[in-house]
Design a protein that fits this description.
By secondary structure, the chain is an alpha+beta fold. The chain is built from seven helices and 15 strands.
């Protein structure tokens, strides 16, 4: 899920070019109506697309997931994948090697604020891109993590802009004095996701990751699975228990911005030997090749 999605930008977002409801203009000039249902209710879908040297990594999957998300909540966008690509292209700078393309589509603006349907509105479409710097490389020493109860809404497979539950997970980390750590969310007895990431663990040479069953079908998640299987690494899509995750040899989380982030401790106890492991190093290195 992607989204410690606050990129390490090399320029202010307000200076970025944007597309808004048929117009290209500076992001600072975009004006969102206070009656937009995205603003009022979080009634919308978004995507976060990493672009390297002009190529969208996992682009087709991102665009398809966007359209599927809109369909799942009955937002009637008439654009095709190619339409979306064509709109996005002018926003990408030839001078930037690494960029993030952000796309948000809401149900649109109504004359009055109301919860009920039918809704008389045209979808609001916003896109903008911004340069970013990858947060770490193969020398990264790893991140601590802490278990939390999964308190998000129960349609986690939809990439909704309604992210209060995810935000609250990070707020709890900050309140606990570990703002730079990661949260691993538990539903029942199983670890399902992180607030903005999918979860992986490795044990005895086998990689485990929760199946796409009411979790976000992460594009980076699938790319990692493909890399692992192409290298002969067995991947099992099962929900691990918290105990199994703590006893893993390696744990990492994945999203489009942080890519593969290794977890070296959980609730103060080391994962494996407390360092990023060899399977993570292998998959992380192979993932970098996809950017070329």
């Amino acid at each position: 899920m992607a989204d410690n999605e606050t990129a390490n930008n090399t320029m202010d977002n307000n200076d970025c070019a944007a597309y808004f409801n048929g117009q290209y203009l500076p992001l600072s000039q975009v004006s969102i109506s206070p009656l937009d249902r995205g603003f009022l209710f979080g009634d919308g879908i978004y995507e976060f697309v990493p672009v390297f040297n002009g190529k969208a990594l996992g682009g087709e999957q991102h665009w398809q997931r966007l359209l599927e998300g809109l369909k799942s909540v009955d937002i009637p966008l008439t654009y095709s994948v190619q339409d979306l690509k064509d709109i996005a292209q002018p926003l990408l700078s030839d001078d930037e090697h690494t960029q993030i393309l952000y796309v948000q589509i809401t149900r649109g603006v109504e004359a009055v604020r109301k919860h009920r349907f039918p809704v008389d509105a045209k979808p609001t479409v916003l896109m903008f891109s911004t340069p970013f710097t990858s947060p770490f490389d193969i020398t990264y020493s790893g991140c601590d993590a802490y278990f939390q109860e999964d308190l998000r809404w129960q349609r986690c497979s939809i990439k909704s802009i309604s992210l209060m539950g995810n935000v609250m997970s990070y707020l709890q980390l900050a309140k606990d004095g570990v703002a730079n750590s990661e949260a691993l969310l538990i539903r029942g007895e199983h670890v399902v996701e992180a607030p903005s990431s999918n979860v992986f663990m490795a044990k005895d040479g086998v990689v485990f990751t929760p199946p796409v069953d009411n979790i976000l079908a992460g594009v980076t998640r699938q790319l990692i699975i493909d890399i692992a299987e192409n290298q002969g690494i067995e991947v099992r899509q099962v929900f691990p228990t918290a105990s199994e995750v703590k006893q893993a040899d390696e744990v990492w989380v994945s999203n489009s911005y942080e890519e593969l982030k290794p977890i070296i401790s959980i609730d103060g106890e080391k994962v494996g030997d407390g360092k990023p492991g060899p399977i993570w190093q292998r998959l992380f290195s192979s993932y970098q090749l996809l950017k070329q």
